[in-house]
Amino acid sequence: MSASHSEKKSSRPVEPASAAGNDLQDNLRRLDRLANLGLVSASLAHEIKNGLVAIKTYVEILLEKGEDREMAGVVRRELVRIDGLATQMLRLSAPKSKALAPVSIHHLLDLSLRLLEHQMSGRMIVLKRDYRAGSDLVRGDESQLQQAFMNLVLNGVEAIGSNGELTVRTETAPGGPGGNTLKIYFQDTGPGISPEHLSRLFEPFFTTKQNGTGLGLAISRRVAEDHLGNIEVVSELGRGSTFIISLAAER
Ligand SMILES: Nc1ncnc2c1ncn2[C@@H]1O[C@H](COP(=O)(O)OP(=O)(O)OP(=O)(O)O)[C@@H](O)[C@H]1O
Ligand SMILES: [Mg+2]
Fold it and tell me: Least packed by Cβ within 10 Å: which of 137, 202, 208, 234?
């Protein structure tokens, strides 16, 4: 066992003198592969969407003819779902946005929450806002950030189901690329997340929902990273979950 282990090691050339250079090259190759992967999935998503347009047209004709309405209805519903999936894939592999502008995070949170307020009150979910950040300005892409916020709120709503509390909190923390970090907490009183799921949450296509795409968190993480930030989760079974987005704050 240990022999084969050391054999494996020695089969790899080790050059300590140029280790830093190799690391850099490895990283560049990895980035290149990732960029290619993005391109491939974007093209793939495009092709899927193009195919869907044709299929959709035929299904519409079938529906009009009134032939097997039920079957056509099922196909139509599935098409809408796949269409949504392809759209999310495109967003996931889209290159970084270059249209950056100062964004007021409190304003954007209010806007995002307003869109989901109706859904929350219908499910008897109490929304609490606790905006503590002194300055809420972030340099970024407003629509991408809104998408990330809505993904996290929706996950919270879906986790709670009905009767519970959703708290959105902000605070400024020292440190980070811009000097300060703006932290946004999305806390729910849902069932929490098991340890084995916790490690897979941000993987694209990981979902425990029947109609989920499993892309919501992958996209949210990508958005946070595009804004020099990150996303973390704290969860305990039976006690709910908190997702925390950290973003580089503008001075
Ligand atoms: N607040 C939460 N509480 C409990 N589990 C969560 C929470 N947020 C995410 N999860 C778990 O993480 C999984 C992945 O979430 P993600 O948002 O990426 O995809 P999804 O919600 O399943 O699908 P989609 O966002 O495309 O509708 C979910 O299926 C769920 O199991
Ligand atoms: Mg989701």
Answer: 208
